[in-house]
Sequence to fold (214 residues):
Amino acid sequence: MSLRLYFHPLSSFCQKVLVALYENGAPFEREVVDLMDPDGNAAFKKLWPIGKFPVLVDDARGKTVPESTTIIEYLDRHFPGPGRLIPADPDAAEETRFLDRFLDLYVHLPMQKIVTDRFRPAGSNDLFGVEQAKELLGTAYGILDERLAGREWANGAGFSMADCAAAAPLTFAEMQVPIGNHKTLAAYLTRLRSRPSFARTWKEAEPFLAMVPK
Fold:
């Protein structure tokens, strides 16, 4: 088995890659990283000095691939599954890559800002930053609600990297800032939660979900 994924089941960026792996069926070894463990943290930083997961190692090719989007692009090129996560059609591929970046920047990151702020010591919270993050999430919800109209999956062509990028952050974000009356987006999230690849990913995260503040 040439692929090893360094990850944590609770990480939304790691869940993004797990969904992709389960979609294409590529076999891989799991290396769960505990950043709170000094030895584990040090060993992981020898592999990737930035110290952030996920990281994919392909022993057969001698490649270390960090960052969730880059990993999915790599998997789609070298370990394609029955459905391509980056469509062959250039326009659909462009839409897929745009939505992947949009979800990472305007759903993933503000969601993480809200969640991590609740772990700060009393008196050191960034209330202004959290309000900005909530406002950005609300704006992103509105844009996605309009863009997803008439689509089953994000890019309008089929399940793709964009949907891998959407499933976990939207699920976590909805715990912090309800989707509310964005009915198209809410229906899309229901479809994502029912997708076997994400259902499996979320099931594996369940032992850690008590750590997520609501």
User: Anything to note?
Assistant: Strands lie at 3-7, 29-32, 55-58, 63-66. The mean pLDDT is 94. The two ends are 39 Å apart (CA to CA). The chain has eight helices and four strands.
